[in-house]
Amino acid sequence: MIGKDGLKEILSIALSNGGDFADIFLERRRTSIVFCEDNRIERVNTGLDVGAGIRVIQGDNTAYAYTNDLSMTGLNEAARIASHAVQGENRHLTIDLRTVTSPVELIIEERPDSVAIDRKVEEVERANRTARAVDPRIKQVAVSYGDVVQNVVVANSEGSYIEDERIRTRFVVNAVAAEGSLIQTGYEAVGGHVGYELFKEKGMSPEAVALEAARRAILMLGARPAPAGRMPVVMSGEAGGTMVHEACGHGLEADHIQKQLSVYAGKVGQPVASELISVIDDATLPGKYGSYRFDDEGVPGQRKVLIKNGILQDYMYDRLTARKEGRPSTGNGRRESFHYRPIPRMTNTYIKAGQEDPEKIIRDTRRGLLVKKMGGGQVNTVNGDFVFDVSEGYLIQDGEIGPPVRGATLTGNGPETLRIVERVGKDLGFGIGTCGKDGQGVPVSDAQPTLAIRELIVGGVEVPISPNGEIRRLALKEGNRSSWDW
Amino acid sequence: MQSQLSQRAVEVVHRAQQLGAAMSEVFFINSKVLTIEVREQTVENLKLAEERGLGLRVFRDGRMGFAYSADLSPEAVEEVIQAALANSRQTTVDEGNCLPSPVASYPELDLYDPRIRQAEVESKIELAKEVERVGREYDPRIKITESAGYEDSEYQITIANSLGLNASYCGAYCGLYLVVVGQEQDDNQTGFAVQYRLRYDELEPNKVGREAAEKAVRMLGARKIGTCRVPVVLDPYVATSFLGVLAPALTAEAVQKGKSLFASRLGQSVGSEAITIIDDGTLANGIASSPFDGEGFPSSRTVLIDRGNLQTFLYNTYTAARDGVVSTGNGVRGSFKTTPEVGTTNFFIQPGSISPEKLISDISEGLYITEVMGMHTANPISGDFSVGAAGLWIKNGELTTPVRGVAIAGNLAELLQAVEGVADNLTFFGGKGSPTIRIGRMTGSGA
After folding, report:
1. DSSP states of A24-80 as a string?
2. What are residue B294's phi and psi, to 5 degrees?
């Protein structure tokens, strides 16, 4: 890619009509996917995307231009376009670019781009066979392998310069089970900021992922429709963290706060959850799907305590929202790709584990719903109402795990729900997903310990309208099988 | 420019053939986008961008390989050709793998309004500001602008394949949107409106601004209602959301893989006589109109469900070959990074002949649904859905007070059968659209 001298010139052009800040984000992204459905390897796709985004900030206003012409001419032109959107004086800044380092170490053992494509095809075929062998009622299986190697350079007019490489690998199995006219689906997804060693981790081999997806689809065939109404809910530690992502994560993003679009605005220092609850967003966790050394503005990834023992501590900031308050960014400035300006986003968000034995929490629950796996969710941060689906759920009857239920959606209000968390387990299980906000999808993970919540509404009666934050689990929908949407 | 790209496309195809492809096809796209976001009457974000890329499909021994690149240098393109050929060694042999042959002509469509390009950025900024101004001034309770903006895009597409097909076209569209929050005591309600047009002069900032504000304000003070069983009316936006869930089930791909609730229903009645569903890639003024699809096959108008009868499915070249039929021109590409998959173009419910007011005029008590939540959880394979709804209570044939907190559950197949009437106000939200739809009695579960 282009050298530091070239970048200085481009940043100077970007600020030639004035502006307080300018940065450039250069990206080179190689992806590889293998997709199998209907017992056929339908797609083996590889690709290269390259481009650069140039941003100029003046006061509260942002001008952004992108191009995939990475020649000096192309970048100068993009910088000129961005500069034209600003009205001011050229301050003739001298920019000296210094390389910033990150304390975050993320080690890749086996680069996926060094693995021959036929090995990837084999993993996919094994998963397909495994899922189909589970039960004759498994009628369709879709398996998707994907990896991405993203190289970025970020430089800005304050003089910081970073180079980074992000490598992510993921594996998703969707199974469709049918019996009579009843059709149910099950999925399982694993992935992280890891290489091919992903498959060595416990429960993450292609077979294990396939078995889990197929088991879930078959289980749901025998499930009864979920009950409706208010009831106690136990969320298992292995269920993932959709609730924390929706119930408070999105509402703690500084852009929502500053625009008065969050129920958590103006509440720092105040209790917003039960004392048992501490919420952390941590970009530095090794290998997790939302981890990184630097965010997309060149700020090192950090661990942020957002809520401590129920008291709201801080929000998640990118550079722009941090500037507005005269404080440093928390390293949460992320973008889907060079096509977008960065905005405050979550990374790996979780509720800190507590003390209790998860099994005892279930045993002490007389009746309620046990959520064993959460699906996707949505939130309206303005009022805090959220909804999420349960992809594996059971009734709890007299402290025992009872029959499975299907089709449950849970709704609640973020601050209200976090206040009525009554017990917190000592376990913690992560789920991965693509978090959507303002039309940009970024990889995230989330986790919760086993939680007992006094009550939530099952059945989706009270629902948030007009969501502005959501998370999609990686269940395959029509159309995304040949693309790599992160 | 266009002829240069066509020439380049032919060269890429030629090179792929030379390196061993039995058939090959290249897709080039060049696009420009402008987005303007305003808040409190100042430009908060302005984005101007240019992008290009190519996607290459090759077939060898009945296997398909695909690769793409945004880097169009000779070395990068050579790498794409090599990668696509290498990828084709790994996929499954399939007789359906083929490409469309050249055609004598394509539908003539007016897709490029030069005004979109010619209009000054300043006048586009003014449009975005006007949308916000109209929305904010509509009612003092409109207190927050969540987002307001203008966007446009122009693009040029070129496709060439080894059977001699070589075609290009240009298109452009523009749009306005507004999302506002209305506040009254502790109640916050969001309202939005969006409008996309192929012609710059057809944008209506007043209409968009008023609509968003009206939607937010009319929901303020919504009361919860108890469980009820009443006639349900879906406004065009909600009806379009349901239609969106139905779309994959009407593709031949879903049918061939046993993932459609319409599989084995061809020629049968799947809905009430009031319902006709059409996909039309040649629709005049349609945002998703194009002379040809993502593999160069001519776009067409396909009546999928005709007065309740399932007539056909949507096809691309591959699924058509598998069923021994002709493609409907629905090989849709999301971008140069994807292969052409079966998808919709302008996909809509055909309007009826009565006004929306008339449609509800004989309902003594009913629910007019304006927002639904959780539609993404609807199952496109089984058709089961369970959504939360909010809207307006219908009393004596008129829309009255706002209501919320109602859950509606059911099955899409049953919903289609239960359609009692379709109004004349077909409204598009991007490439999908519907008029106001009246459904028979449904159970709304209240808290």
Report:
1. EEEEEEEEEEEEEETTEEEEEEEEEEEEEEEEEEETTEEEEEEES--SHHHHHHHHH
2. -70, 0
Q: For residue B48, which residues of chain A lie inside 8 Å, CB to CB?
A: 64-65, 81-82, 85
Are A463 and B405 in contact (CB < 8 Å)? yes
Set of chain A residues whose Cβ sits within 8 Å of the Cβ of B91: 40-44
Same domain, A257 and A390: yes
Structural domain total, chain A: 2
What's the domain range around A193? 112-148+166-223
Both B158 and B253 in one domain: the answer is no
Query: Least CB-CB distance to B374: which of A34, A463, A477?
Result: A463
Contact residues for B293 (Cβ-Cβ < 8 A; gap 6+): B281, B299, B316, B327, B329, B330, B331, B332, B340, B345
Using a pLDDT cut of 90, give the percent of chain A over it: 76
Q: Does A218 map to a domain? A: yes
Tell me the shortest Cα–Cα distance from B438 to chain A, in angstroms: 22
Last residue of a domain, one of B166, B195, B217: B217
Residue A463 has pLDDT above 50, yes or no: no
Supply the range of the domain harboring residue B20. 2-217
Q: What is the DSSP string of B290-336?
A: -SB-TTSPBP-EEEEEETTEE---B--HHHHHHHTS---S-EE-SST
Query: Given the structure tokens 């709704």, which residue do they identify?
Result: A411
Q: Using an 8 Å Cβ cutoff, are A472 and A383 in contact?
A: no
Q: Write the CATH number for A192.
A: 3.30.2290.10
Q: Are residues B399 and B303 in the same domain?
A: yes
Q: Which of A50, A62, A65 sits opposite B44 (nearest CB)?
A: A62
ipTM: 0.88
Shortest distance, CA B401 to any CA of chain A (angstroms): 17
In the DSSP assignment, the letter for residue A248 is: I
Enumerate the residues of chain A whose CB falls inside 8 A of the CB of residue B79.
48
Between chains, do B71 and A48 touch, taking CB under 8 Å as contact?
Answer: yes
pLDDT, tens digit (0-9, with 9 covering 90-100), for A389-421? 888 999 999 999 999 998 788 888 899 999 999
Q: End-to-end CA distance of chain B: give it in Å, rounded.
A: 61
Whether B160 and B94 map to the same domain: the answer is: yes
For residues B299 and B292, is the Cβ–Cβ distance under 8 A?
yes
- pLDDT digits over B55-107, tens only? 999 999 999 999 999 999 999 999 999 999 999 999 999 989 999 999 999 99
For residues B284-313, give the mean pLDDT: 97
- Judge: A389–B48 Cβ closer than 8 Å, yes or no: no
Test A176 with B259 for CB contact under 8 angstroms. yes
Number of domains in chain B: 2
- Give the gap in angstroms from C-alpha A61 to the nearest C-alpha of chain B: 4
Same domain, yes or no: A366 and A417 = yes
**Which of A476, A379, A465 is CA-nearest to residue A173?**
A476
CA angle (A129, A131, A137) in 5-degree steps: 115
Distant-in-sequence, close-in-space partners of B401: CB < 8 Å, separation ≥ 6: B221, B222, B223, B392, B393
- Residues composing chain B: 447
| B145 plus B7 within the same structural domain | yes
Q: Which of B217, B247, B267 is a domain's end point? A: B217
How far B104 CA sits from the closest chain A CA (Å)?
30
CB pairs under 8 A between A and B: 218
Q: CB A81 to CB B48 under 8 A? A: yes
Contact yes or no for A66/A82 (Cβ under 8 A): no
